[in-house]
Amino acid sequence: MNSKQTAGRNIAVLAAAQALGGASPPIVMSLGGLVGLQLASNPAWATFPVSLFGLGLAFGTLPAAAMMRRWGRRAGYVLGALKGILGGAVAALGIFSGSFKVFCLGTFIAGLYSSYVQSYRFAAADAAEGEMKTRAISRVMVGGLIGAIVGPQLVIWTRDALPPPFVGSFLSQAILPMIAIPVLLMLRTPRAEQAAQGIDTGRPLLEILRMPRYILAVATGVVSYGVMAFVMTAAPVAMVKQGYGVDNAALGIQWHLLAMFGPSFFTGRLMARFGKERVTAFGLVLLAGSGAVALSGAALSNFWGSLALLGVGWNFSFIGATAMVTDCHTPAERGKAQGANDFLVFGVTAIVSFLAGSVMHSAGWVVINWAILPALALMLVPLVWQASRAKVAP
């Protein structure tokens, strides 16, 4: 099998693994705040399990990158899947025993699993060259579209399957990475990459961190993912408080996730045609538009419409930011550059997820949506300036 065939095989494997791994976060996002309301002694801590999921994701990125540099991506991804099995099982145990602390531990471990899943997009980019990198990222992210369908449906099908409510949903979360393991075992690491395992060459990380283009790419990823998580974490709680019920909240998250991954069919082509920076900037504008829709009313259509726009905006801005990061490092530097990016992105995401619960409890849904606008405006200025200087392929 030549290198091009190997790359195609790896992208297909990663897309399938993304479908399974991408079904896990919707379960935490849809139910984490609601289970938190049931188990936490203080309602302000309701979204803390979701925050710990993000914290686990952030803390897991650098160790995951180091482990994969040493042992290869396939071994790392299988280890990550084992953590996913453990996370779902522990979260289910927390609900069954009525322990908020145990449930939080489970969501944290599930976040560690997601730190591996999030790197699938970089693995796809590593398998491609030139402008094909953006399309490879998009193809793998399409797998998330399946996860966006499966995850919320699992919530609906399994939330009352076992007593007490939601135990079945988190047990199903443990089954997903179990299915992913044989898929991941089909991944084939190119020999050139295998030979480079464990060798730390290229520029020091601090030098990469000082690059203006890298700073812009990382900051854009931080803002796009942070804004999305801030709003999405609060949305299920806001819908239930408005009287729309758990199923409507789960379906709202499903529409959001479909919007997050659905555009991946053509995001890569848009970036090749109009440029990474332009598509990324447009994504930030759509994120602002989601806030405007949410602020225009409290009907179910406002919630779902806002979440859908939030998803499309995230797709354009986050995939664009990911592609911008891949332009800032050599193959030898990718482990540290990509790991540092994900650590910063998901570290901030964990913080804002926790803040979402406090802001939602103390100030409400309206303030949540007003709060995202300054951050988006702050990022749009340098991004539009960079987009005006970027060359676009004819």
TrEMBL record:
Major facilitator superfamily (MFS) profile domain ranges (all copies): 205-394
Coiled coil: none
Record field: transmembrane: 46-65, 77-96, 102-124, 136-158, 170-187, 214-233, 253-272, 279-297, 303-323, 343-361, 367-385
Stored SUPFAM superfamilies: MFS general substrate transporter
InterPro entries in the cross-refs: MFS, MFS_dom, MFS_trans_sf
Domain of life the protein comes from: Bacteria
GO MF annotation: an example: transmembrane transporter activity
KW 4Fe-4S (keyword) present: no
One Pfam family from the record: MFS_1
Entry keywords, A to Z: Membrane, Transmembrane, Transmembrane helix
Name this protein carries in UniProt: MFS transporter
